[in-house]
Design brief:
With 114 residues, the chain is an alpha+beta fold. It has a single domain, classed as HIT-like (HIT family, subunit A, 2-Layer Sandwich), CATH 3.30.428. Helix content is 24%, strand content 22%. The protein is built from three helices and five strands. Strand 2 (24-28) and strand 3 form a beta hairpin. The protein is globular, with a radius of gyration of 14 Å. It binds adenosine monophosphate. The site of adenosine monophosphate (AMP) has 12 residues, from loops.
Length: 114
């Protein structure tokens, strides 16, 4: 089922887009938890990481390449950053369209909080 991210991809609702090509869109998270908090989203409706297949490999590679370019453009590649993908209930996933959270802009704390 289409999510709010599909509406952003289709430009039906606004977002602060910082990167886009034919396979990936990236935009600022509306509720940031770090100075830099970008969502990197494939332009294919893949609900969760559990749903990826080999056919999606072009999208998955494109996501990583986009992250690399975004990190360089935001000047965080050298200091570093963190990627998170939440999956389903225990992972805390809220939007069921696969995405990476790209977090950076400061030294991040412990990886997990409970
Ligand atoms: P997740 O919990 O991994 O599914 O993350 C979903 C993320 O989407 C959350 O961090 C939300 O703040 C973010 N989000 C939801 N709606 C929007 C929106 N319209 N624009 C930007 N970010 C959004």
């Amino acid at each position: 089922m289409a999510t709010i991210f599909t509406k952003i991809i289709n430009k039906e609702i606004p977002a602060s887009i910082i990167f886009e090509n034919d396979k990936v869109i990236a935009f600022k998270d509306i509720n940031p938890i770090a100075p830099i908090h970008i969502l990197v989203v494939p332009k294919k409706e893949i609900p969760t990481l559990n749903d990826i297949t080999a056919e999606d490999s072009d999208y998955l590679i494109a996501m990583y390449l986009a992250i690399k370019d975004i990190a360089i453009s935001l000047n965080i590649s050298e200091n570093g950053y963190r990627l998170i993908t939440n999956c389903n209930s225990y992972g805390g996933q809220e939007v069921f369209h696969l995405h990476f959270h790209l977090l950076g802009g400061k030294k991040l704390g412990p990886m997990l909080s409970f």
